[in-house]
């Protein structure tokens, strides 16, 4: 099970301005691989993750999930292809505000699985808290708990450790490592050196191109 991007382009227009957020990005992440995606602010990391997740549509190129084309399909089909296989942690909007952490996880969970990964993420004691009561680091970890709720085969995560202290970051990276060892493909966008150090491979984006 892999995720593959072939020659992805994404442009944004605002008035006369055109931003070339992705300019011909090709990559693949294999099962069990922990890949870090680094690059300066604005280099296209979030755009790339959104396109890989099928939450944004590239203007050119193709995304394939386990050999099946994800791009240029109706959202309902993209959702079906993603469901239960791809976990996504975005930069915001990962939690429904009117549900507790545990309810957020339960909402996306298929069947009855345990909530034990909350403890692994160091937020077991916050299971009954509402998102507005969480610290920045707690809410990122709660979002990660939602993304991991169905034991996805691919995890796409945007800055999962950005708001964490060094000790908690280590804890989250250990958990991600164990996921990779059990076969999950991880693509983690981050500015943190600790994430790049923990990864098997580092992809570096600059101005919408991999270097
Ligand atoms: N919806 C949008 N409309 C217009 N421009 C956008 C949009 N989304 C992203 N961009 C632009 O595309 C470029 C890439 O943005 P992106 O968020 O992918 O970068 P990033 O590497 O994730 O940055 P950061 O590290 O700050 O999160 C930036 O110039 C950004 O301003």
From TrEMBL:
GO molecular function, one term: ATP hydrolysis activity
Key words of the record: ATP-binding, Nucleotide-binding, Transport
One GO CC annotation: plasma membrane
Top-level lineage group: Bacteria
Gene3D superfamilies for the chain: P-loop containing nucleotide triphosphate hydrolases (3.40.50.300)
Annotated ranges, domain ABC transporter: 3-211
Family annotation (SUPFAM superfamilies): P-loop containing nucleoside triphosphate hydrolases
UniProt family annotation: Belongs to the ABC transporter superfamily.
Name the UniProt record assigns to this protein: ABC transporter ATP-binding protein
Upper classification of the organism: Bacteria, Bacillati, Actinomycetota, Actinomycetes, Cryptosporangiales
